[in-house]
Amino acid sequence: MTTEIIKIFDTTLRDGEQSPGASMNTEEKIRIASQLERLRVDIIEAGFAAASPGDFDAISQIAQKVARSTVCSLARAVDKDIKAAGEAIKHAKFKRIHTFIATSSIHMEHKLRMTPDEVIKKAINAVTYAKEFADDVEFSCEDAGRSDIGFLKEITDAVIEAGASTINLPDTVGFRMPSEIGEMIRIMSEYTKGRAIISVHNHNDLGLGVANSLESILNGARQVECTINGLGERAGNAALEEIVMAMKTRKDIFVGLDTNINTKEIYLTSRLIANITGIEPQPNKAIVGKNAFAHESGIHQDGMLKNKETYEIIRPEDIGIDISDTLILGKHSGRAAFKDKLTKLGFEANNEEINKAFERFKELADKKKNIYDDDIRALVTSEMTHVEKVYELIAMQLMDSTGGVPSAAVTIRHKEKEKTDASIGGGTIDAVFKTIDRVTGFKGTLIDYKVTSVSQGKDALANVTVKVTFDDSEPAMIGHGLSLDTMLASAKAYIGALNSYLSMQGRLKNSSSKGI
């Protein structure tokens, strides 16, 4: 039997980044794109080029680094958006422009204020113009889930004639039931057979994103748009890991269908994105949650001891977790053992990144008894997504006696010079951040603050993620800090956000000088 491949279109870097608090800097996006390529996703939607100079820059750099996956940029059915997308992906080996316009009556009447004929004309113009920049053009009927099927056929005919080879039918507001989505996809896949690939993009507002995606595949969709960990605005998107593992586990239902995904990279990809965004999957999240392979019930444990298949339909190793190999390294471990561990965990790092991560590992091993795989993943991710350290934290001292005023003293290095200052605040963290502002001369406004435990135990690493705007300049910057001390991690995260801001300002100045 011939196997038919379902294309996986990952939009973590575009739709996933629209999750509140999930913004990423350019270096982090490049690192994620490289990991998505190792995961073997077919198409990486790297961003929305026209949204901001920062988005354009990130897509452009990803396009130059990714060699095996198709690099895609989203664009509204507007000439300036399409031109920005085309320019951003021009160096990609495989490139795609994804353009869209709303097709439901409620969107056309109240948002676009256009007639159906005007929408079709705009869609044709968008696809025609996009073909000047890329042979591979995808067209999306925004809010297809609430669109008239007759109009979907009409606009689909028009954009296929104009050159679109993929037609995406998104359930933009997550409204439809699986049976309804399945019927729409069955009709449209039969209607476009031999002319275009039908794609789906299901939101999770009613918790049906994955179910709707799987039903779509069974009814003829041959591309699925999804995100790692189900990230996305509102309730998120269909989760890539759930779709892929459902197909792999239930081959009796998905007969003759498969994906190109290397499932052994799933867990590493999930952890990378959780570390970078600061958004942890809930513990009972399917496939990648911390409890996904935990068995606490006595009945379950008894069955597991006798035969794992009694309660385990997916093996941890299938998604890249080696449960039997988590506590090998300690303070006496050498560089060779550390490098071997990174290989087992799926990291591809250069010597400089390995050396820096190893130094941080040794520092951690002196303070922490047990080093878990998640600790190492967090350390390496931190080193591999770093930006230039314009400012570097050297020392910090906190003073907050009972009934006193919280204050902090901070020493920061800048251009080989160290400067120390102190400040008071409404709380300890406020005092730390105000002191950093005094030392650096940049005024930051904290938009979001999150702290999570990397692994387990009272000596677990604290992973702090902050979202900060500097000098009232948009967009907000994301910063990360790792430390056994939460306050120290917070200071590192804040300075990391400042360094990202300065790095972006520098890149944008360079881009402007090149006429972009």
Largest sheet descriptor:
8 strands, parallel, barrel
Write down the Rg. Answer: 24 Å
Residue windows where pLDDT falls under 50 for at least 5 positions:
295-306, 511-516
> Structural class of the secondary structure composition?
alpha/beta
Number of self-contained structural domains: 3
Strands of the widest sheet, in order across it, are 2-3-4-5-6-7-8-9
Description:
The longest helix has 28 residues, at 486-513. The chain has 516 residues and is an alpha/beta fold. It has helices at 26-39, 53-65, 79-88, 105-112, 116-130, 149-162, 178-191, 209-218, 240-249, 266-277, 298-306, 335-344, 351-365, 373-384, 428-440, 486-513, and strands spanning 4-5, 7-10, 43-47, 70-76, 95-102, 136-142, 166-168, 197-201, 223-226, 257-258, 392-399, 407-414, 417-424, 444-453, 462-470, 473-483. It folds into three domains: 4-277, TIM Barrel, CATH 3.20.20.70; 298-384, no CATH class; 392-513, Double Stranded RNA Binding Domain, CATH 3.30.160. The radius of gyration is 24 Å and the shape is globular. Helix 3 links the parallel strand 4 and strand 5 (95-102). Helix 1 (26-39) packs antiparallel against helix 10 (266-277) and helix 8 (209-218) crosses helix 9 (240-249). Mean pLDDT is 88; it is low at 295-306 and 511-516.
